[in-house]
TrEMBL record, chain A:
Top-level taxon of origin: Eukaryota
Pathway annotation: Lipid metabolism; sphingolipid metabolism; Sphingolipid metabolism
Organism whose genome encodes this protein: Gossypium tomentosum
Name of this protein: serine C-palmitoyltransferase
Membrane topology value: Single-pass membrane protein
UniProt key word Transferase: yes
From TrEMBL, chain B:
InterPro entries for this protein: Aminotrans_II_pyridoxalP_BS, Aminotransferase_I/II_large, AON_synthase_class-II, PyrdxlP-dep_Trfase, PyrdxlP-dep_Trfase_major, PyrdxlP-dep_Trfase_small
Lipid metabolism is among the record's keywords: yes
Major enzyme class: transferase
Region (Disordered): 474-496
Pathway: Sphingolipid metabolism; Lipid metabolism; sphingolipid metabolism
Protein name (record): serine C-palmitoyltransferase
Length: 392, 496
């Protein structure tokens, strides 16, 4: 099976130390370079001294600290929605939010490439689930047509479309404007997971809605994990007041679990403040992505499967070796060699046995705005060398 | 294990009936009112169906100010509660800038690590500067640091098992582990009062679920015999795997689990034991190692031990400890390990430091003092409350003590009156407890001094008289003070 993952000896910034050697780090989703940022460390330190580490209680029983309320208000303010709700773990955000609104008998149309958190939430909700082809709008339209034709008594049923803005498993970006048109035509509600696009896409980093020019009121529920662009932990969900208030009492990951540690909430507030004051972070990130794309577009044996504007650059094998297991083994060998010989830290994407996603595995590079041009060019050269050596 | 007096049951049913009738009345008027105004969501079914949030809108919102009270300081022995006010009859609550300093009887702060600690906090800030607040990556990619490795070894040593794996959130630990270790064709037998995370994990696994009566080993044996004889539903083939899930301390009852008997039964019928020590790790036992140490059960007999770090260690996250093969298997398949961001490095350092303090490895005896203090505090508080005539649940040595309220009107009365006198308590009602059995739950901490406890007792006694919850006759103080604290008759009360 797998070997032990490499052990880091310093912070997971654009450069990190593994086994005493300094390597360029492409395996941390540190899109805006906030890991190791001074202001963040300062606000965390003052929060630690004031509040201690943990919050020692669920939100309903004295676990609500004023930084949580401030953080929720800040996020809602930044995105332009009415209110938001904080979860203490990124993965549990979606698998608690979905069973809140979808019960047995409801219909959910979902992309087949969504990540495990969403799949688990759908399974727990016991609704009828219909998959459509990954990022294919014709397939989505056909599916919606079929469902509304079959179900004439659809007045009482709640119907949802679940998509991710930037797919974790492939790096594709969902065409939100087309989805909104379909949603209004067939009367479905949209649930959008903006984990990898919050702080990245759009002119000021407000995510996919700004990028596609869609007003955020049209999306019913927006969720995101904060462990990527904002460099803290936890997740949030935002939407209209009715949506958020309902979750405060019936979302199991919110009610029955301890709240987010206060220093992480204050780190999130500081991160959003910095993002709002420095909009050039997102443009630097876009430049970096473009450089990496150009460098890797002619690599032999691997092809880029992700969108040119997504911060996740996803390389898949041009010719699969037959089974997913042997593909994974080959990709891991490539990543291993890149680390040991070229000092470039990349990882192959892993799949759990419980994951039902049919997309191919590949090597995933997370681009950060803190990477310098030299780092990116070095990465391109190294990967070309390794791929040429390992893939004949 | 509660008998409710008939008169109280009658009045409680009557109160709920009245609230329900009022709620339906108002809903009826709301429907007529809405019929006049068209809505702009034509063609969409409402996002929350009528009956789903009936309880929220008509019952919960009336007493909303008793729950979710924000605080403005660390949840230590004394903390600052933020005052809130409402303009529209409790529908929305707004924060003010005023705070009141209250005694904290509600937070899970068993050993007093919630606030900044002299040994732990400098090390936590150190690791923050070294590793930053988050690794932004999963454990199998770029998220394993030297701190994580050290933490897992430390936890495995502390709990007494060969290996351990740590996750960033306790709830996810349960819900993501059960689907991995058991699937279709397996059987999960869980205690009827298990926590929501275990129920979610069991449902997500696809195995068959059976429930046994709370903390009754004889009923567990009966269920096991029936199920093994029947086999899988429909095919009647033997079960692939049987797991019995119990908790160390049940958080709504304050009771300890009858672990020795349950382990004996599981050994006899070859079932696996899964122990969830969320509230008991670090808080009970001579050196804080949990219910196994307290009840004298060998840790090798319990197959999977799970726990959380939120309560006694003042941090966040959960762990699973077991044999090396089990942990190796979990690291390769568990989705919470493969897909979720790894635990934040400062939180990991807090756990390591607090374990060192508990074991006395920091060079002082603060750990042993804390453990002794929490034991004394809990036993003293419980016996005093029982002497005053309150109905208190839970076993001796457990730091969680629920006081029965029953009637829905007494819940906000108790909570608000105590807050007026600067004591902050937690009250729990439906749906976390059965409908008739609402209660107030006290969590004792090692950072409470004797004066704090005496003040709390005084306030609770006063409020208890006002609200009328002293269901048992009070004992005369002078004679009983010298006698033993253990009163076996009071501790085990049967529930029908």
């Amino acid at each position: 099976m797998l070997s032990e993952p490499p052990v880091l000896e310093s912070a997971a910034g654009p450069h990190t130390i593994i086994n005493g050697k300094e390597v360029v780090n492409f395996a941390s989703a540190n899109y805006l370079g906030f890991v190791g940022h001074d202001k963040l460390l300062e606000s965390c330190t003052s929060a630690l001294e004031k509040y201690g580490v943990g919050s020692c209680g669920p939100r309903g029983f004295y676990g609500t600290i004023d930084v949580h309320l401030d953080c929720e208000a800040r996020i809602a303010n930044f995105l332009g929605t009415h209110d938001s709700i904080l979860y203490s773990y990124g993965l549990s955000t979606l698998f608690s939010a979905i069973p809140c609104f979808c019960k047995k008998g409801d219909i959910i149309v979902v992309d087949e490439g969504v990540h495990w958190g969403i799949q688990n939430g759908l399974y727990l909700s016991r609704s009828t689930i219909v998959y459509f082809k990954h990022n294919d709008m014709d397939s989505l339209e056909k599916t919606l047509e079929k469902i509304t034709a079959l179900n004439k008594r659809a007045k009482k049923l709640r119907r949802y479309i679940v998509v991710e803005s930037v797919y974790q498993n492939s790096g594709q970006i969902a065409p939100l404007d087309k989805i909104i048109k379909l949603k209004e035509k067939y009367r479905f509600r949209v649930l959008l997971d903006e984990t990898n696009s919050f702080g990245v896409l759009g002119r000021t980093g407000r995510g996919l809605t700004e990028y596609c020019g869609v007003p955020i009121e049209k999306i019913d529920i927006v969720t995101a994990a904060m462990g990527h662009a904002l460099a803290t932990e936890g997740g949030f969900c935002t939407g209209s007041a009715r949506v958020i208030d309902h979750q405060r009492l019936s979302s199991s990951g919110y009610v029955f679990s301890a709240s987010l540690p206060p220093y992480l909430a204050s780190a999130a507030i500081t991160a959003i403040d910095i993002l709002q004051q420095n909009p050039d972070l997102t443009s630097k990130l876009k430049e970096n992505i473009a450089i990496l794309w150009k460098g890797l577009s002619d690599i032999r044996g691997l092809s880029i499967a992700s969108n040119p504007e997504s911060p996740i650059v996803f390389l898949v094998l041009e010719k699969s070796t037959g089974s997913m297991k042997s593909d994974l083994q080959l990709l891991e060998d490539i990543a291993d060699r890149a680390l040991k010989q070229e000092s470039i830290f990349v990882m192959a994407s892993k799949r759990s046995t419980l994951d039902k996603c049919p997309l191919p595995v590949g090597i995933r590079l997370f681009v950060s705005s803190a990477h310098s041009e030299f780092d990116l060019l070095k990465a391109c050269e190294s990967l070309k060398r390794v791929a040429a050596a390992m893939l004949r | 294990m509660i008998t409710i007096p008939y008169l109280t049951a009658l009045t409680t049913y009557f109160s709920y009936g009245l609230l329900f009738a009022f709620g339906q009345f108002r809903d009826f008027f709301r429907k007529i009112f809405d019929w006049w105004h068209a809505s702009n969501l034509e063609g969409y079914a409402p996002i929350c169906l009528g009956l789903e949030d009936f309880y929220t809108r008509r019952l919960y919102l009336r007493i909303q100010d008793c729950f979710g009270r924000p605080i403005a300081s660390a949840p230590d022995g004394w903390f600052d509660v933020v005052e809130r006010y409402s303009n529209d009859n409790n529908k929305t609550l707004k924060r003010t800038d005023k705070i009141s300093r209250c005694l904290n009887l509600g937070s899970y702060n068993y050993l007093g690590f919630a606030a900044a600690d002299e040994y732990c906090t400098p090390r936590v800030i150190d690791s923050l500067c070294r590793f930053s607040a988050s690794t932004c990556s999963t454990r199998v990619e770029g998220g394993t640091t030297t701190l994580h490795k050290e933490l897992e070894e430390c936890v495995a040593n502390f709990v007494g098992k060969p290996a351990a794996v740590v996750f960033g959130m306790g709830y996810v630990t349960n819900s993501a582990i059960l689907p991995v270790i058991i699937g279709k064709g397996g059987l999960i037998i869980s205690d009827s009062l298990n926590h929501n995370s275990i129920v979610n994990g069991a449902r997500g696994s696809g195995a068959t679920i059976r429930v046994f009566q709370h903390n009754t080993p004889s009923h567990l044996e009966k269920v096991l015999r029936e199920q093994i004889a029947d086999g899988q539903p429909r095919t009647h083939r033997p079960w692939k795997k049987i797991i019995v899930v119990v908790e160390g301390i049940y958080s709504m009852e304050g009771e300890l689990c009858k672990l020795p008997e349950i382990v004996a039964i599981c050994k006899k019928y070859k079932a696996y034991v899964y122990l969830d020590e969320a509230h008991s790790i670090g808080a009970v036992g001579k050196t804080g190692r949990g219910v196994c140490e307290l009840l004298g059960v060998d840790t090798a007999d319990v197959d999977i031990m799970m726990g959380t770090f939120t309560k006694s260690f003042g941090s966040c996250g959960g762990y699973i400890a077991g044999s090396k093969e089990l942990i190796q298997y979990l690291k390769y398949t568990c989705p919470a390990h493969l897909y979720a961001t790894s635990i934040s490095p400062p939180a990991a350092q807090q756990i390591i430091s607090s374990i060192k303090v508990i074991l006395g490895e920091d060079g002082s005896s603060r750990g042993a003092q804390k453990l002794a203090r929490i034991r004394e505090n809990s036993n003293f508080f419980r016996s005093e409350l029982q002497k005053m005539g309150f109905e208190v649940l839970g076993d001796n040595d457990s730091p969680v003590m629920p006081i029965m309220l029953y009637n829905p009107a007494k819940i906000p009365a108790f909570s608000r009156e105590c807050l007026k006198q600067n004591v902050a308590v937690v009250t729990v009602a439906f749906p976390a407890t059965p409908l008739l059995l609402a209660r107030a739950r006290i969590c004792i901490s090692a950072s409470h001094t004797k004066e704090d406890l005496l003040k709390a007792l005084e306030v609770i006694s006063q409020v208890g008289d006002m609200v009328g919850i002293k269901y048992f006759p009070a004992e005369p103080n002078k004679q009983q003070q010298d006698q033993q604290q253990q009163q076996p008759g009071k501790d085990t009360i049967k529930l029908d």
